[in-house]
Amino acid sequence: MNKKDRVIMNDDIRATEVRCNVDGGESLGIISTDEAMEKANAMGLDLVLIAPDAKPPVAKIMDYGKYRYQEEKKLKEQRKNQTKIDVKEIKLSVKIAENDIAYKVKHAREFLTEGKHVKFRVFLRGREMAHPEAGRDVLLRVWPMVEDLGTMDKPPRFEGRYFNMYIIPNK
Q1: Is 156 exposed, middle or buried (0-12, 13-18, 19+ CB in 10 A)?
Q2: CATH number of the domain located at residue range(s) 7-75 in this protein
Q3: Does the model's pTM come out above 0.85?
Q4: What would be the CATH architecture of the domain defined by 87-169?
């Protein structure tokens, strides 16, 4: 747990007085920390410092265990609603044969229908680096075979020794 996440509560509160609230919304005003602790103990709850940097610090009387449980539940719910993008990479070469392109495009079409993103890569070896446009030409040959299933997010772009093209499935 890093310092930012650490919660100051009950006997760890060092301030002499705090602006105190009760979890129902009722405000007790500025009272001494001891008085606030007594009130919290009488209610069977915790005194939690919410804004330690304020003058005077703001504390709240609440059931901290219940509060933490609800926060974790909220985070879990948020993670559940996130969508993870699955990117499949298909590698091609400049001297690829027509039937090999068809085979790789068949896989790309399957990935796109499953809702996965597809990244086509053409790796340029040795002397092929002298004519990088050959890599773009391969990708532009592939594009018409998949354009009915996806949208070109990134047009063919030269990055290092690769020509990349990124395709997102249609909704």
Answers
A1: buried
A2: 3.10.20.80
A3: no
A4: 2-Layer Sandwich (3.30)
